[in-house]
Structures are given as structure tokens and as C-alpha cells.
Design goal:
By secondary structure, the chain is an all-alpha fold. It has two helices and no strands. InterPro entries: DUF1289.
């Protein structure tokens, strides 16, 4: 299943969590998004709800 980027144009990095306040990705994930495999992107998509809920999985960065 192909998905677009989770970017919602609210781009502001939270220095405490290391996640974007808009899409909840790390700066590395944002920068590498276009080079990620479909599987890598799907992994990030699955983690976003947990990150949004405050249960950051940012240590498992691709």
C-alpha cells in the first residue's frame, strides 16, 4: 500500500521529544522520506499514533 507523506504543513520541531509537532516524525525521517523503502515508510506510519499519544518511539529511527 503506497501512502503519501504524513506532512501536514505544520513544521516545527519539538526540542524535547525530537519530533515534528505537526507530523510526529524525526528530522531524520523527514529528510530521508523520499529515499525510504515502502516498508520503512509503513513502519513510520504505524508508529505515528503512538508518538502523537506521547509514547515516543523516536529511538527506533530508521
Amino acid at each position: 500500500m503506497s501512502r503519501n507523506s504524513p506532512c501536514n504543513k505544520i513544521c516545527m520541531m519539538d526540542p524535547e521529544s525530537g519530533l515534528c509537532a505537526g507530523c510526529f516524525r524525526t528530522i531524520e525521517e523527514i529528510g530521508n522520506w523520499s529515499r525510504m523503502t515502502e516498508g520503512e515508510r509503513e513502519k513510520v506510519w504505524r508508529e505515528l499514533p503512538l508518538r502523537k499519544a506521547g509514547n515516543s518511539t523516536k529511538d527506533s529511527v530508521i
